[in-house]
Amino acid sequence: MIDHVGLAVSDLGQSRSFYEAALKPLGYEVLMEVTEEMTGGHGAHLGMGRDGVHSFWIGTHQAASKGVHLAFSSPDRASVDAFYDAAIAAGGKDNGAPGLRPEYHPNYYGAFVIDPEGNNIEAVCHKGDA
């Protein structure tokens, strides 16, 4: 089981704006901020999550991540739709509108957007007609 995952970004402010908006419908928010000074020059970082758990991090410590596929669990199909709309409004690029993906399994309902760094970000619900 994965405890948390992180992406390196080139512009923390731009990525923060994108992810705060895109992940809000899934219940994610910024839970922790770590400054460049706090890390002794090893980048600034934001820990995001829900229910008090920092499960997703973005930071400036390395060259920006590109081409990563990251899927966030969604409690229902409406949240997948809201994620997609929020991500597009925040500057994400369409990479697959919300809908069923029966090639994965009959209830796989997902939406895909490309983030500011070029990563494929997904929200997915595995429940039927939720």
From TrEMBL:
CDD domains: VOC_like. It comes from the Bacteria. Residues 1-126 form the VOC domain. InterPro entries: Glyas_Bleomycin-R_OHBP_Dase, Glyas_Fos-R_dOase_dom, VOC_core. Pfam families: Glyoxalase (PF00903). PANTHER family: GLYOXALASE FAMILY PROTEIN (AFU_ORTHOLOGUE AFUA_5G14830). This is VOC family protein. It comes from Paracoccus aurantiacus.
